[in-house]
Amino acid sequence: MNGNDTPTEGMSVTSGTSATIHAALDGLGPLARQLGQIHTRLWHEQVHQDLTGPQFTALGLLRTHGPMDQGTLGALASLDKSTAAPMLERLKRRGLVAITKDDKDRRRKLVTITDEGRELATALAPAVVAVSEEILAHFNPVERDQFLSLMRRAVEGAQQ
């Protein structure tokens, strides 16, 4: 073998290498990508073509928790700063949120959902739930709970 695991003349790929490649192809990465693609397709078909999942999450959090600073919203929505700021600016341009400076700390930006944003989040919530239901339809209730619990645990473990 040469340095990149390609067989050289007269040599074949070892079964260990082949098994590792098969394990990689059958592993979490390809499955997570496929599930993400399915979710994105269903989102476009059933929820909204002009509002992304993270944008809905931000609106939903503001709808349920009320106004909050941009950093807190980004943390609750699992968005990094480089993603949260431009996303919130897009929502602001669409009139779905208002962004103001905190009177007590001018460096902090406070985000408030507008009436239009509140109406949109409320109207779309059933379709968002329906997308999840469609993806999880092949599981019985116990399997659904287990699957979601294991996914949350994997995400939480990877964030530590």
What does the model show?
With 160 residues, this protein is mainly alpha-helical. Helices cover 65% and strands 8% of the residues. The protein contains seven helices and three strands; from the N terminus they run H-H-H-E-H-H-E-E-H-H. The chain has a three-stranded antiparallel β-sheet with strand order 1-3-2. Strand 2 and strand 3 form a beta hairpin. The radius of gyration is 22 Å and the shape is globular.
Describe the secondary structure blueprint for this structure.
Elements: H1 15-25, H2 28-46, H3 53-65, E1 68-69, H4 70-76, H5 81-93, E2 97-101, E3 109-113, H6 115-136, H7 141-159
Antiparallel strand pairs: 1-3, 2-3
Question: Descriptors for this entry?
Answer:
mainly alpha
* Shape assignment: globular
| Biggest sheet statistics | 3 strands, antiparallel
Rg, nearest Å: 22 Å
Mean pLDDT: 90
Q: Which H/E pattern describes the elements?
A: HHHEHHEEHH
Estimated share of beta-strand residues:
5-15%
What is the helix fraction of residues, given as a range?
Answer: 55-70%
> Ranges with pLDDT <50 over ≥5 residues?
none
The count of β-strands is: 3
What's the short story on this structure?
The protein is mainly α.
